[in-house]
Amino acid sequence: MAARVNGFACLDPKLAQAGHFFLSGLNKAGNTSNPLGSSVTPVTLAQIPGLTTLGIALARLDYAPLGLIPLHFHPRATEVDKSVIDYLQAKF
Fold first, then answer.
1. Which helix (H) or strand (E) holds 60?
2. H/E/C letters for each residue in 39-68?
3. Contact 37/68 with Cβ under 8 angstroms?
4. Rounded to whole angstroms, how far apart are CA atoms 77 and 75?
5. pTM to 2 decimals?
6. Which residues belong to any copy of the Cupin type-1 domain (predicted)?
7. Which of the 8 DSSP states describes residue 10?
8. DSSP tag of 78
9. Tally of CB atoms within 10 A around 78
């Protein structure tokens, strides 16, 4: 019986493949034509099974000019942002 973390069975290291840690499609921008001018594309364990026990959550964030992500928090978690644009203002 496989160990479980957060309700998901751990991946047997002997059966792990590169595809368990990869997701195609995150290179495509989300639709930002909404009142917030932003789009969040979350990545789940169903899409990247290798994330089960790594303690990592992923999401792609897209912003239109002057777009924003509403105030939010991550209980018991850390947020790391990587910007691939010229300017992004973040307030905490």
1. strand 58-63
2. EEEEECCCCCHHHCCCCCCEEEEEECCCCC
3. yes
4. 5
5. 0.68
6. 25-80
7. P
8. -
9. 8
